[in-house]
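Section 5: illustrative case.
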C-alpha cells in the first residue's frame, strides 16, 4: 500500500469520526432543548395573586356585592390576562357596572372584577348556569409567571342570610407559579397553559 492510499484512508476515517461527533453533539443539544422547554410550576397560596373578598354564597337577588368579587394582587408592573367565561364578568366604571369585554380582558394588579352571569340579561335563570370557569394568568415583563383557575358552581337552597333560591360559590382549583430558570423567565406558550389547565379541569 503506497503512502497516498494510506493518507486517503486516514482522511476518510477522520471525516467519519467527525461526522459521528457532530451527530452526537446535535442529539445532545436536542435533548437539552427538550429539557429546557419543559414547564416548571409550583403551587403557591392563591392570595399571592388574587383574593375573593366575599364568597359566602352569592345570589343575584340577595347579596351585598354585584357579583362574586375577584381582586388582582401584585406590584405595579404586574399585569393579568383574564379568560374563560368572560361573558359572565363585569367591572365597575365611573360608578356603574359594565361587561368586562367592553374594556378588554387585560387588567392591572389592584383591579377588581365580578362574576355575574345575570348582568344585562334578564332572561337568564339560575338553573341555566352550569359549571363556570375563570382563568387568570399573571404577566411580568411580558412573560407568564402565574396561573389561577377558579371554578364556580351553583348550589340549591338558602344563602347565609336565609334567603331562598340558587346561590353560587367560587372554588380556587389551582394556584401556580412558574419560577424563573437560570435567572430568566420561562417562555410558556398558550398551548402549554391549556395542557396544564386540562389536568385540573378534565
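Designed sequence:
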Amino acid at each position: 500500500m503506497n503512502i497516498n492510499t494510506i493518507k486517503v484512508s486516514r482522511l476518510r476515517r477522520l471525516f467519519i469520526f467527525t461526522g459521528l461527533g457532530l451527530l452526537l453533539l446535535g442529539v445532545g443539544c436536542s435533548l437539552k432543548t427538550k429539557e429546557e422547554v419543559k414547564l416548571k410550576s409550583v403551587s403557591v397560596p392563591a392570595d399571592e395573586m388574587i383574593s375573593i373578598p366575599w364568597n359566602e354564597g352569592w345570589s343575584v337577588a340577595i347579596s351585598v356585592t354585584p357579583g362574586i368579587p375577584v381582586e388582582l394582587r401584585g406590584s405595579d408592573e404586574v399585569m393579568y390576562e383574564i379568560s374563560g367565561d368572560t361573558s359572565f364578568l363585569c367591572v365597575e366604571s365611573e360608578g356603574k357596572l359594565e361587561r368586562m369585554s367592553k374594556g378588554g380582558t387585560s387588567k392591572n394588579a389592584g383591579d377588581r372584577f365580578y362574576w355575574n352571569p345575570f348582568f344585562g340579561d334578564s332572561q337568564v335563570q339560575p338553573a341555566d348556569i352550569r359549571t363556570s370557569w375563570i382563568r387568570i394568568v399573571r404577566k411580568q415583563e411580558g412573560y407568564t409567571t402565574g396561573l389561577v383557575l377558579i371554578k364556580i358552581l351553583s348550589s340549591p337552597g338558602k344563602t347565609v342570610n336565609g334567603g331562598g333560591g340558587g346561590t353560587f360559590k367560587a372554588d380556587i382549583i389551582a394556584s401556580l407559579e412558574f419560577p424563573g430558570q437560570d435567572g430568566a423567565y420561562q417562555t410558556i406558550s398558550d398551548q402549554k397553559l391549556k395542557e396544564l389547565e386540562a389536568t385540573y379541569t378534565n
